[in-house]
Write a structure and sequence with these properties.
three-stranded mixed beta sheet, 261 residues, seven-stranded mixed beta sheet, single chain, disordered N terminus, 12 strands, alpha/beta
C-alpha cells in the first residue's frame, strides 16, 4: 500500500460501485449482490408481497430498509406521483439505491443514509453481508435460524459464504422527525432485520394517527411477531399476520400488515 493509503481507498471505492444486474428479461438494476437483487425483485414484483396494499394517486410512502430501492421502484411504478422517503444505512446499498433512482428517473424520492431506531445514536455497528445484503443486521447472532432455512436450498459451504460479513458503523435517528409535517403516511414499510420494534418506538405517540398502513417483513425470533402486534395495537392499529409468498412456510419469516383501526 502506498504511504498515503490510496490503495486501500481505491479498494473501498471499488466495493461501493453498484453492479448492473439483470433481474428479469430486459430489466437491469444497480445492485450490490446479484443473488440478493434477483430474490428481492421476485419477492416484490413477481410474487406480489405488497400487492394487497391500496394507495391513492399521490401517496406518502416511507421505505425503511430500502436496500437498493426495488420497493421504492415498485411504488413509483404503480403510483408515479407518490412521494417516497427512503432510509438505508449501509453505504454500498445506498450507492445502488441512488443509482437506481437516477436510472429510472424517479422523481420526488428522498434518500437518507442512516438507520432508524428508538433513540438517536451517533454510531452503531451493523454486520454487513456482501453476498446477502438484505440480511445485514445489528443482531448477527439471530441469523442462525435463517442459515438453517437457507441450507435447505443451498449447500452448506455456500450458506457459510453468504454470512461472511464485515462490520460497518452507521448513524441512527428516530423516524418522528421525518413525519413532523403532519402529512398522513399512506404506507410505512419496514424491512430491518431485528430493528422493527425499535423503529416503531421511534415514533412519537402524537404521530400515531398519521399512520394508515404499516407493512413489516419480520423474522419471528423470541416472540418478535407477537410483540410487534401488541405494539401496533397500542398505536391504534389493527395488525394481521401472514406468510410471505416465497417463504414456503419456513416458520421464520412473516409479514405483518397493520391498518388504522
Amino acid at each position: 500500500m502506498s504511504p498515503n493509503g490510496s490503495s486501500e481507498r481505491g479498494n473501498i471505492d471499488a466495493m461501493m460501485v453498484p453492479k448492473a444486474t439483470e433481474v428479469a428479461a430486459g430489466l437491469s438494476v444497480h445492485a450490490a449482490s446479484p443473488l440478493d437483487a434477483r430474490f428481492l425483485y421476485q419477492e416484490i414484483f413477481e410474487h406480489g408481497t405488497y400487492a394487497d396494499v391500496s394507495l391513492g394517486e399521490e401517496p406518502f410512502v416511507v421505505d425503511v430498509g430500502a436496500n437498493i430501492g426495488l420497493f421504492t421502484l415498485f411504488v413509483k411504478t404503480h403510483c408515479p406521483r407518490a412521494h417516497v422517503v427512503a432510509f438505508e444505512p449501509l453505504p454500498e446499498l445506498v450507492s445502488a439505491l441512488r443509482a437506481n433512482v437516477a436510472k429510472f428517473d424517479l422523481s420526488d424520492v428522498e434518500v437518507y443514509e442512516l438507520a432508524l431506531g428508538g433513540e438517536e445514536r451517533d454510531e452503531v455497528t451493523f454486520t454487513y453481508y456482501p453476498l446477502l445484503p438484505s440480511s445485514s443486521t445489528l443482531f448477527p447472532h439471530d441469523q442462525e435460524r435463517l442459515k438453517g432455512v437457507l441450507s435447505k436450498s443451498f449447500p452448506p459451504r455456500v450458506v457459510e459464504r453468504m454470512f461472511q460479513g464485515r462490520e460497518v458503523s452507521v448513524r441512527v435517528d428516530r423516524l418522528s422527525q421525518y413525519l413532523d409535517g403532519g402529512r398522513p403516511v399512506d404506507l410505512l414499510k419496514i424491512d430491518a432485520v431485528g430493528s422493527e420494534l425499535a423503529i416503531l418506538r421511534g415514533i412519537d405517540r402524537s404521530l400515531f394517527p398519521l399512520l394508515r398502513n404499516v407493512f413489516i417483513d419480520v423474522q419471528d425470533i423470541n416472540g418478535r411477531v407477537a410483540e410487534l402486534c401488541v405494539l401496533l395495537e397500542e398505536m391504534g392499529m389493527k395488525p394481521a399476520v401472514r406468510v410471505p409468498p416465497m417463504s414456503d412456510g419456513d416458520g421464520l419469516n412473516y409479514l405483518i400488515h397493520a391498518v388504522q383501526a
